[in-house]
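Students often ask why inverse folding is considered easier than folding. One informal answer: many sequences map to the same fold, so there is more than one right answer. In these notes we will look at a single instance of the problem. The structure comes first.
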């Protein structure tokens, strides 16, 4: 794969919604806005194949060519999230079945079953035709497979596939029955055909496997498309899918393993960007392939699907785009270019309105495009480098989501609770899959890693033995990979390393005060009563008067034996105390931090030649003064900067040190 030479800005464009005579004007406006890329065709199946085997690709080729004449490159989407009416009528079993057993109605999106053999056949045939036609096209630089995978199907084919999936994994029913403790509530299976798809709550083992099965189904579906595409693509083409951030329907590490690039769609919906909480989603996406990613869609102003479709503040999307870049994005594309006159999304934000004229937002895109052009070369090939890793695990998330114990306990929120103070100190963070080796990091935070396996335990032990600083949090090490309780006290196989074990845990109806030498606060939602196992394990904080069981018991510990250090945090601290704790941990671990005024984010990307690029973003609605402890050069405005400089509302500075 050749690295991209350019920081792209673009939009989703649907020329099939418009008479061809209109295209030149749209393309003129795109060029004037400074767009460098469009994504097309991801919902155009009925236009490209109006009936089985009758292909109509000429219009798309003309659109690609006209755009290219104006220096705008193309990413094509395979249109498989919107199978046409003729297809689902001809092959009714391609339609998915919902949880209630009802066939999904045609006319929205994602209505197909991704395990349907008839759908597979139609997809392979169509994607092959599309790939043959456009794979060699020099103006097509990449492909998006399908669009935002999300449908879960409950048809008979899926049930049979699930049973086969389990059979392959467990080998025997005896094994499955034992792993899932099916003697419980008389669930013992004597034939694979008896195993259902879970509708609502079910056996925890089955629930976890079902999520894995959904991911495996999508992966197989995606692989079919990749196999159809790749023989026809140019070596430089990259294939991706537009994921949905924290969407938890399947394991994104599995899905991205076969792709060249990760991409995601960032929508705020109602309200506004919360930069300290949203940055982690970029880091999550970057972590899928441990490479820079694309922001394939983002909202130009407002969406149409939220409770209140308010507009972002003027400039806010500009700061958001830079935030994405600061966290590793190589491209930012707005969804969409222009509102179609009909269809379900008439009121969504766009760059051009139904009259064909630029909306006020268009100027903001223009502003961003100018800046991207100014620093594109500088940023080319640069990457985010982090000394801090946060470990992320879909299995643990699903396990907790299946049995929250406290209705407000949420894995993603808990994860973000640890991320926020790092973001506020402008610390780069890699969000890694929990099974990744941890060499090279100084601090690793593993929030609520409830499911442990041999790999992650080995890596965590090696990390601490090599001098690493590790933070384990509540609900760690409770379960095995089958979602069964471990026959040990949490954190199970990590207890020795942590020097501590959990005697009992409590879902809290009220906050419980926590007090230590340098820490005062309270625990919300959750509290674990810790038992110190080793003399080198210090109690950092204890519960104060609470439910009796917790009173004066250890709540947070720090173990210093060996070369590394392990904190066990059995509480879910209030925001102020959490900040205090994390800052202390950062300082102890010797992690460099950058001071910035509230709402100003400073991130670094490192160029291949080792030079650090500082991206300074003002997420505030008013201007502010930023002070850096060095002199540098600002590349957007092309001016030297001496320590302090003015950063207007929602604007960005891109600096290198002198
Ligand atoms: C995305 C989707 C786009 C468009 C957008 C509107 O989820 O991929 O096609 O519908 O939402 O916000």
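Output (designed amino acids):
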């Amino acid at each position: 794969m050749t690295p991209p030479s350019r920081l792209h800005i673009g939009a989703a464009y649907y020329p099939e919604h418009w008479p061809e005579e209109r295209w030149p004007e749209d393309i003129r406006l795109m060029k004037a806005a400074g767009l460098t890329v469009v994504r097309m065709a991801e919902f155009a199946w009925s236009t490209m194949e109006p009936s089985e085997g009758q292909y109509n690709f000429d219009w798309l080729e003309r659109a690609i060519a006209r755009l290219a004449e104006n220096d705008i490159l193309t990413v094509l989407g395979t249109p498989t999230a919107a199978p046409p009416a003729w297809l689902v009528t001809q092959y009714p079993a391609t339609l998915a079945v919902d949880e209630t057993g009802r066939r999904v109605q045609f006319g929205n999106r994602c209505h197909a079953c991704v395990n349907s053999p008839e759908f597979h056949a139609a997809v392979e045939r169509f994607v092959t035709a599309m790939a043959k036609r456009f794979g060699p096209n020099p103006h097509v630089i990449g492909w998006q497979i399908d669009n935002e995978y999300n449908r879960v199907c409950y048809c008979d084919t899926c049930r049979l596939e699930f049973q086969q999936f389990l059979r392959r994994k467990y080998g025997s029913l005896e094994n499955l029955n034992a792993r899932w403790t099916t003697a419980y509530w008389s669930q013992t299976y004597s034939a694979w055909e008896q195993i259902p798809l879970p509708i609502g709550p079910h056996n925890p083992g089955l629930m976890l496997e079902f999520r894995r099965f959904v991911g495996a189904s999508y992966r197989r579906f995606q692989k079919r498309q990749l196999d159809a595409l790749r023989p026809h693509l140019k070596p430089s083409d990259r294939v991706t899918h537009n994921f949905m951030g924290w969407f938890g329907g399947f394991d994104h590490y599995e899905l991205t393993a076969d792709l060249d690039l990760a991409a995601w769609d960032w929508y705020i919906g109602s309200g506004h960007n919360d930069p300290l909480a949203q940055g982690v989603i970029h880091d999550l996406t970057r972590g899928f392939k441990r490479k820079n990613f694309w922001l394939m869609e983002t909202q130009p102003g407002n969406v149409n699907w939220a409770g209140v479709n308010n507009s972002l503040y003027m400039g806010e999307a500009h700061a958001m785009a830079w935030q994405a870049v600061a966290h590793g994005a190589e491209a930012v594309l707005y969804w969409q270019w222009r509102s179609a006159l009909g269809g379900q999304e008439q009121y969504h934000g766009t760059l051009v309105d139904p009259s064909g004229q630029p909306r006020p937002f268009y100027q903001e895109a223009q502003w961003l495009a100018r800046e991207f052009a100014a620093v594109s070369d500088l940023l080319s090939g640069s990457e985010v480098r982090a000394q801090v890793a946060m470990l992320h695990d879909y299995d643990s998330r699903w396990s907790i989501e299946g049995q929250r114990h406290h209705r407000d306990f949420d894995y993603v929120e808990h994860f973000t609770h640890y991320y926020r103070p790092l973001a506020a100190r402008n610390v780069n963070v890699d969000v890694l899959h929990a099974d990744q080796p941890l060499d090279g990091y100084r601090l690793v935070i593993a929030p609520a890693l409830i499911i442990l396996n041999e790999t992650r335990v080995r890596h965590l032990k090696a990390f601490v033995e090599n001098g690493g600083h590790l933070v384990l949090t509540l609900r760690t090490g409770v379960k095995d990979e089958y979602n069964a309780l471990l026959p040990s006290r949490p954190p199970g196989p990590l207890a020795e390393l942590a020097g501590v074990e959990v005697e009992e845990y409590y879902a809290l109806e009220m906050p419980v005060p926590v007090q230590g030498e340098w820490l005062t606060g309270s625990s919300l939602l959750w509290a674990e009563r810790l038992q110190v196992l080793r003399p080198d394990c210090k109690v950092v904080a204890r519960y104060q008067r609470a439910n009796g069981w917790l009173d004066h018991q250890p709540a947070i510990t720090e173990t210093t034996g060996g070369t590394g250090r392990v904190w066990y945090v059995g509480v879910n601290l209030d925001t102020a105390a959490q900040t205090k704790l994390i800052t202390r941990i950062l300082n102890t671990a010797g992690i460099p931090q950058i001071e910035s005024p509230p709402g100003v984010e400073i991130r670094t990307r490192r160029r291949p030649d080792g030079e650090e690029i500082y991206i300074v973003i003002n997420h505030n609605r008013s201007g502010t003064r930023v002070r850096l402890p060095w002199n540098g050069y600002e590349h957007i405005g092309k001016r030297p900067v001496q320590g302090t400089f003015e950063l207007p509302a929602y604007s960005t500075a891109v600096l290198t040190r002198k």
